[in-house]
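Example S7 (C-alpha cells).
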C-alpha cells in the first residue's frame, strides 16, 4: 500500500479520528473550565489523584483479564525487556543532547527527557487508540520505567542514597500493585483452579456460544459483579486524565514559560526526538527479527515515550532544588507540545501500520 493510500485510510478511520478528537476536545474543555473559574486549580489536582489512585489501577488490572497464548506471552516478555532497555538507552543518551549546559543542568535535563508521564498521560491515550492489549503492554512496559524512576532518578536528583521510604512508595503505589497483580494472574492462569462458565464479551453474555473453562481469577468471566464496577472505573481514566491536563494548562503561565529557549529545545527532544528514536529502535530490531514486536507493542512504546515530563521527575527537581524553575517551565512546554504532537504521532503510527510496515 502506498503512503498516500495509507494516510487517507488513517484519516477516514472513525476509531482513530474519534480517539484523536476526544483527547484534544476534552483537554480543551478542561482548559476552558479552568479559565472560566468553574474548576479550581486544586480540583485539577484532585482529579489527578483520583485518576492515579482508582481509575488507572482498575484499567491496568482489567487489561490482564485476557486469555494467554504463546505469541502474546513472548511479546509481553519482549515488551518487558524493551521497557528496561529503552530507559537505560535514554539515561545514557539524553544528557548528550545538552552537552553545552553545565553538568548539574545536564543531569536534570537528562532525567526529565528520559522519564515521561507514561501512567497519567500515556496509558489513557494507549487505551483509547490501541485497546486492552495496548493497555496490557503499556503496564508491562512501565515496570522497568518505575524501577529506574524510583531508584536511579531519585539518587541522581537528590544526591542521596536510595531510601527505604522511596522503595515503599514505589511498591505500594496503586498502579504498581494492580499491574503486578494483573501480570501474575495473567501469567499463572493455566496453573490456577479452573471453572466452567458461559462465554461473556465485555460483560455481555454471548448467545449461542458454548461454555468454556477459565481460571477462577478471570473475573471478566467468573465474577461480573466485581469486573463490572472495575470496568466503570477504568472507563473514567481517559476523560479524568484529559480534564486534569486541561485544568493544569489553564492554571499555568504559558507566557512566562515560553520565554525559555531551553524549555522549547527540551520539548522538541521530549515529544519528537525521543519517540522517533524509540520507533527506530523497536521497529528496526523487529524488522531483523531481534526482540520482535507487533504493531500494537511498538505503537504502545512510542506513545508512552511521546508523553510530557513525568510528574515525579518534576517533583524531584522542585523538592531537591535542582533547577526547579527550569523543570517547571519544561514540564509546561512539553505538555503543550504533547497535546499538539500526540495526534500527529497517532496518525504517523497508523499510516505506518496501514502501509504494511508492521503487523
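Recovered sequence:
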Amino acid at each position: 500500500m502506498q503512503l498516500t493510500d495509507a494516510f487517507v485510510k488513517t484519516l477516514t478511520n472513525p476509531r482513530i479520528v474519534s480517539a484523536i478528537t476526544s483527547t484534544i476536545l476534552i483537554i480543551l474543555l478542561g482548559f476552558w473550565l479552568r479559565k472560566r473559574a468553574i474548576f479550581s486549580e486544586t480540583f485539577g489536582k484532585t482529579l489527578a489523584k483520583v485518576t492515579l489512585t482508582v481509575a488507572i489501577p482498575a484499567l491496568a488490572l482489567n487489561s490482564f483479564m485476557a486469555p494467554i497464548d504463546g505469541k502474546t506471552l513472548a511479546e509481553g516478555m519482549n515488551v518487558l525487556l524493551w521497557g528496561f532497555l529503552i530507559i537505560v538507552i535514554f539515561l545514557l543518551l539524553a544528557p548528550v543532547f545538552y552537552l553545552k549546559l553545565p553538568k548539574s543542568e545536564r543531569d536534570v535535563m537528562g532525567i526529565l527527557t528520559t522519564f515521561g508521564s507514561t501512567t497519567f498521560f500515556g496509558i489513557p491515550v494507549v487505551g483509547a487508540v490501541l485497546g486492552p492489549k495496548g493497555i496490557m503492554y503499556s503496564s508491562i512496559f512501565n515496570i522497568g520505567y518505575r524501577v529506574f524512576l524510583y531508584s536511579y532518578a531519585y539518587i541522581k536528583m537528590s544526591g542521596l542514597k536510595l531510601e527505604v521510604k522511596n522503595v515503599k512508595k514505589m511498591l505500594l503505589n496503586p498502579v504498581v500493585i494492580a499491574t503486578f497483580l494483573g501480570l501474575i494472574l495473567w501469567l499463572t492462569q493455566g496453573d490456577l483452579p479452573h471453572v466452567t462458565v458461559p462465554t461473556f464479551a465485555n460483560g455481555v453474555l454471548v448467545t449461542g456460544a458454548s461454555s468454556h473453562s477459565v481460571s477462577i481469577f478471570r473475573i471478566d468471566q467468573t465474577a461480573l459483579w466485581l469486573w463490572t464496577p472495575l470496568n466503570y472505573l477504568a472507563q473514567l481514566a481517559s476523560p479524568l486524565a484529559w480534564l486534569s491536563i486541561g485544568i493544569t494548562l489553564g492554571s499555568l503561565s504559558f507566557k512566562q514559560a515560553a520565554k525559555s529557549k531551553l524549555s522549547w529545545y527540551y520539548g522538541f527532544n521530549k515529544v519528537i526526538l525521543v519517540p522517533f528514536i524509540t520507533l527506530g529502535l523497536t521497529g528496526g530490531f523487529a524488522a531483523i527479527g531481534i526482540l520482535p514486536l507487533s504493531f500494537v507493542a511498538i505503537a504502545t512504546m512510542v506513545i508512552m515515550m511521546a508523553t510530557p515530563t513525568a510528574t515525579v521527575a518534576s517533583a524531584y527537581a522542585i523538592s531537591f532544588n535542582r533547577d526547579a524553575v527550569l523543570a517547571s517551565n519544561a514540564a509546561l512546554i512539553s505538555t503543550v507540545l504533547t497535546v499538539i504532537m500526540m495526534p500527529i504521532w497517532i496518525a504517523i503510527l497508523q499510516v505506518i501500520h496501514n502501509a504494511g510496515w508492521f503487523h
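Notes on this example. The mean pLDDT is 84.
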